[in-house]
Fold this protein.
Amino acid sequence: MHNWVEIDLSALKRNYQRIRNLVKPGVSVAPVVKAEAYGHGMIKVAKALFQLKPEWLAVSKFSEAVILRDVGITTPILVLSGLLPDEYEEALARNITPVVYTMEQLYLCETAGKKRLMPFPVHIKIDTGMGRLGFREESLSELISKLKDSLWISPIGVMSHFADADDESSSFPLTQLARFRNFLNHMQSSLNRLPPYIHIANSAGTVRYPESHYTMVRPGLVLYGPTSFAEDFEPVMSLKARILQVKKVPSGTPIGYGRSFVAPEPMVIATVSIGYGDGYPRALSNKAKVLIQGKRCPVVGRVSMNLITVDVSHLSTFPREGEEVVLLGYQGKEIISADELASKVGTISYEIYCRIGSNPVKRYIETQE
């Protein structure tokens, strides 16, 4: 196997338990497994988490929820981006709960509920400052009136979403929390009740703002590895490849497409079986480091479709063809993190996980507890 993504399901489970330990007993946890579980493989990840009995699982699209139902996941599923008009009846029949954020969606829920003679469970989304999905302040009175009058809508959840809870310098999460509290107070006074599931905390909110936990949290990123605000979480994804050839080159030798790197002195170059066609970003050309024999080795030259070239001149032992290379994850005591790769190409770890996770060759492992 030339290259592969390795997913440590035991590390995933330990990260889930860390989240459990961060929240008070009685606070529900809804792991986010959308976008192929951030590239980790939605079905495998959901089945591993299902063993730990989370109260909810969260996805982005109805099609993702259907996949999970079809493989036997019976956990309640929350569809964060809501439903399309032709999806409501099946969602109600299969215990798939939408996030709703428009009056039209409430009408569709009501219609489906009437048809099946059962109230349609929903989570109401309030826009407290993210500016994407959610009821804005000026429409909240109409929303409350609709919830008060309808027999066929069951608001079992109310939610919002932080815009920048991961930014230590920002006070905006406190503004959003205040807006969220105001809506909850309005809802309580108008309906004489609050839904059982109240949530605004994403990963950063869960870790950095205990006051945002309410009755449910929605961890995504921290399930899958360490990040700037949660450095004690374990990496779940690794990217590994093999050395195809090792050779000595003289000073002045150009390496790779475009001759973007020229050996400044005699060097030992290892060609490794990975490239942007396998999910390793081309933007890491001449920037990234990889792990060989537990040591950091710089990528030199362009990342091509299926190959990279690495300077291994400093290694005490001449690498062998077929030797393992780690491009993301641990080798020995060293680690290449998703945050490290992301910082080198001006993106975020979420995109690194999703891009590398697009590699179709995955190995799932269970390590010793």
